[in-house]
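Team,

Forwarding the record for the chain on the shared tracking sheet. I've put the sequence and predicted structure together so nobody has to dig through attachments.
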Amino acid sequence: MVVTHGIPPQSAARRAITVGNFDGVHLGHRAMLGRLVAGARARGLSACVLTFEPHPREFFAPSEAPARLTRLREKLELFAEAGVERVHVLRFDARLAALEAERFVAELLVARLGLAWLLVGRDFRFGARRAGDFARLEALAPTLGFEVEAMADVCDEDAPGSPRVSSSAVRAALAAGDLARAARLLGRPYAMSGRVAHGEKLGRALGFPTANIVLRRRPPLAGIYAVEVELEETRQRLRGVASVGRRPTVAEGAPPLLEVHLFDFAGAIYGRHLRVTFRAKLREEEKFSGLAALRAAIAQDAARAREWFARHA
């Protein structure tokens, strides 16, 4: 898969394109990507995704933006698994936000990306003030020489009322500690990944050394979890207990951090890339009276995580 940050000044190739943020790459997104790839092959086109960084809501109202489900790297990996051939990551900035709807289609999609067939949801909005909609795309398609198709919603048939699968629904499930529902909506257990950074070595001093991953954006979940961990360079799989939060006992007001204590592991970990899959929530994050109480809580968390894995071997 070819990944380009930005888009070319013009394109000689004709492409099948879908546009969106795809945060989480949930079942609805995966159905969209599957239809994109199939439609592209049927038309002899390459399958292309146009996505944005940062998320438009992070640009317009950073303090009110939703928690990120996936980092860009994770999203790109999931695109590749779906069979997408090309991804353009377009920076969302003031100039893009001000681009009128018709120019967005004519200049960016058609002239610069070579749009031949466009697949979007029927609720897709685009252009300045989100003025463009699916009806506008249908009107522009004959004039600008492309086909457009609306993707049907994918619904959560196991939930009351069969609501549409969405990134918001995944966030709500994770925030509520409902990992099973989140996994159902995603089509896979929820995971976070990142590179291990040096920390304050407090976990080692407490007898529970941790692999620390700095979370640059607010995570969609918090608390203490039983986790499975993959060391991506070697594909080694381990189990452990993880904390996602702001460490109120030792660093009030600190930025969010993912801390993972790996069971039965003594190798070098700094600088390595981990994928942490959340299997069970053990408890909420708490502020303890001191380090002795924190150490006792971590020991209990580790024991509970081991017990959970023993029951779910």
